[in-house]
Amino acid sequence: GEDVEQSLFLSVREGDSSVINCTYTDSSSTYLYWYKQEPGAGLQLLTYIFSNMDMKQDQRLTVLLNKKDKHLSLRIADTQTGDSAIYFCAETRPGSARQLTFGSGTQLTVLP
Amino acid sequence: KAGVTQTPRYLIKTRGQQVTLSCSPISGHRSVSWYQQTPGQGLQFLFEYFSETQRNKGNFPGRFSGRQFSNSRSEMNVSTLELGDSALYLCASSLDSANTEAFFGQGTRLTVV
Question: Shortest CB distance from B43 goes to which of A50, A97, A102?
């Protein structure tokens, strides 16, 4: 199977919380990342977590990591229409700190 | 502080031609990585350069090559273009080869006709 998997679509109402999920297969993953891509743009680094951490919070963003299940999630609190974008999770492995392996991306649509 | 600059933003080439894309990293950053983004294959790692040396290479044919200059600017070259090379090519800049944060440019949209 794919190294990093994500569901393709997620729709939420403005003001609600969004939770985007990601699973990965390699238990040696060192860092796990969340990137955001808006139409016609490059990738914006949102946040990242080291593999020995369980949680990281940064303003409206909360990252949860379940290393046993190899499951990563990104929670966006108080989701706004400007959060509509494609969200990619990615991992790096020991010895290749700059080689990111990306998931297929989750299209988040925020409905008014 | 300027971000990662990729030129050109858009490019149209004919099959069989070659193309060179440019990436200027964030000032002070010495690591540059390249990625290809297509609807079918998603985001795939091409290669990484640090201090003018290729450190890591993805699973792409030899038609894809790159280099890095002493000022950390990088170029990637694709020879004998194929229709399947049409993609968004993204460059990522990092402080060094071990740094955790990679910052991406806007990309170069290459269309091969």
Answer: A102
Question: pLDDT tens digits for B86-113?
Answer: 999 999 999 876 667 899 999 999 999 9
Interchain CB distance below 8 Å, B33 and A42:
no
Q: A42 contacts in B (CB within 8 Å)?
A: 4, 6, 90, 104-107
Ordered strands of the A4-6 beta sheet = A4-6, A18-24, A71-76, A61-66, A55-58
A34, A83 Cβ separation under 8 angstroms = no
* Predicted confidence (pLDDT) per residue in A25-79, tens digit: 887 878 899 999 999 889 999 999 998 889 999 999 999 999 999 999 999 999 9
